[in-house]
């Protein structure tokens, strides 16, 4: 994100967030709309940069901000700056690839160990599940059906990344529009069932990261309760 030509603008946001040091930042007053809007800009840029997890020098950020706003001559030329951005990009990519490889290994180890438990069923695809609540015999959805479910999704270490249970509102979706692990697993359930799915990365999001909360190559764990198979008239 920050390694394009527009990168200095993003760094400007980081400098706004950094202010002129922690002591002075604590003294900032937010008494009028200009102060409050300025603070809001800092928050927005800061939150964006927080997701990048980049190693930045706060003093250098502030120096760049001051020089730009005072129209002082830049301390280094554009060629040096672009080379620095390129170097940071290379380091970022290298670190991310290492993290992805580590996550893939952890996911494989977790699933291999989990498969040893008696209560866990392992399907040919690699999807694992265990039955938490048996709602009894009943109709099972087809891949083309729309279902209503409650779910609680975590990484293998228990970190929650999404939960309709926590939101207090069930989710409804066509079964063929979700990750492969869900499409396969929910077709085995009946309304009233509550199962726990252990989804390999290749049945989830694979080598891509769909959000900062879900690293690439992550196996995912879902507690899923099938509430109902939605009738066609309800869908309309």
Report on this model:
- This protein starts with 6 loop residues before the first helix and ends with a helix.
- With 236 residues, the chain is an alpha+beta fold.
- It is 42% helix and 18% strand.
- Strands 1, 2, 3, 4, 5, 6 and 7 form a 7-stranded antiparallel beta sheet that branches.
- The protein folds into 2 domains: 7-75, no CATH class; 105-235, Chitinase A, domain 3 (Roll), CATH 3.10.50.
- It has helices at residues 7-18, 22-27, 33-50, 58-69, 78-114, 164-167, 180-186, 232-235; strands spanning 121-122, 128-133, 146-155, 160-163, 171-174, 194-199, 220-230.
Number of DSSP strands? Answer: 7
Query: Class of the largest domain in CATH?
Result: Alpha Beta
The outline comes out as elongated
What is the terminal separation in angstroms? Answer: 40 Å
Q: Please mark out the parts with pLDDT under 50 across 5 or more consecutive residues, or reply none.
A: 1-23
Biggest β-sheet description: 7 strands, antiparallel
CATH topology of the largest domain: Chitinase A, domain 3
Structural class: alpha+beta
Give a short synopsis of this structure.
The protein is of the alpha+beta class.
Defining key terms:
236 residues, 8 helices, disordered N terminus, Chitinase A, domain 3
How does the SSE layout of this entry go?
Elements: H1 7-18, H2 22-27, H3 33-50, H4 58-69, H5 78-114, E1 121-122, E2 128-133, E3 146-155, E4 160-163, H6 164-167, E5 171-174, H7 180-186, E6 194-199, E7 220-230, H8 232-235
Antiparallel strand pairs: 1-2, 2-6, 3-4, 3-5, 3-7, 6-7
